[in-house]
Amino acid sequence: MSAPRVWFITGASSGFGKSMTELVLQKGDSVIATLRKPTMIDDLVAKYPKERLLVLQLDVTKPDDVAAAFAKAKEAYGRIDVVFNNAGRMSLGELESMGDKAARDMMEVNFWGAAHVSREAVKFFREVNGPKVGGLLMQVSSRAGIVGNPGGVYYSASKFALEGLTESLVKELNPEWNIKVTMVEPGPFRTKLASDNIILEEQHPAYADPSAPGSAFRQYIVSSNVDGDADKAVVVMEKLSHVPNPPLRLPLHRRTIAGIKDKAQSLTKDVEEYGSWSDDVYFTE
Question: At what angle do helices 114-124 and 153-172 cross, to 10 degrees?
């Protein structure tokens, strides 16, 4: 049996964050649970001692607060084995339906917040844990970070940005640091993010037809047709955290898998059809 580990979890109030917090505590691990409203997990505080569960108020959009949370984690536990970078928000609307403020607010959390946590995680793994311990940064991305969704244009943009940051980050890391990074790409799962916490922006009249792609996506994402079980999903994610050399990506849901396959075929088709157009675009001596 492996020794208990220490998890740093953002967005621990609901969804994957709450489910993961509950799961790893049940398994005997310790958790630094961060969230905007600590009272949201008073049930867990009442159940577990402070030695096992450290609850910190955190707004991931504030980089100084993120750094302070990692400092408190170091003081309390001396190490972090897994950072579960999960905090996020979802506002849905077509490009013409969503105002700049709503879009920027979502980008602040889904991209900049995740970037702040990623930066502190890498620094902590390298400078506090050292290569003997290393660490795993688990980014909670989305199918929408691989395949754009109609009616979720800015949400997809925020997750695409996170994917780009993460791919580039992995290439920057010195293998000797023993830092592992995986992007988890869930499809549609029933979580509070896609129910109580979802924000549906008022539709532009041009897109209001119920049969339009954006309208259909809105209807689907808040319906009982969303068949992914968040509690079962985090069991798979936790299993991944034990893999010595985890993959860069973990697609999670049949819709994610199908979407990636379709996109790969589309990219290949475009390259095969138009790749030769690049033959004569170079300087010649």
Answer: 20
Catalytic residue among 77, 97, 159, 180: 159
Residue 284 forms part of a structural domain: no
Name the pLDDT band for 1 (thresholds 50, 70, 90): low
Instruction: Tell me the C-alpha distance between 271 and 285, whole Å.
Output: 27
19 is annotated as an active-site residue: no
CATH of the domain at 184: 3.40.50.720
State which residues form the domain around 224.
6-278
User: Taking the mean position of all CA atoms in its chain, how far away is CA 168?
Assistant: 16
> What's the whole-model pTM score?
0.94
The count of structural domains within the chain is 1
Mean pLDDT of 149-162: 96
Residue 35 CA to residue 23 CA, distance in Å, equals: 17
Per the annotation, the verdict on 155 as an active-site residue is yes
Catalytic residue among 13, 141, 156, 158: 141
Other CB atoms closer than 10 Å to residue 181's CB: what's the count? 23
Q: Is 266 a catalytic residue?
A: no
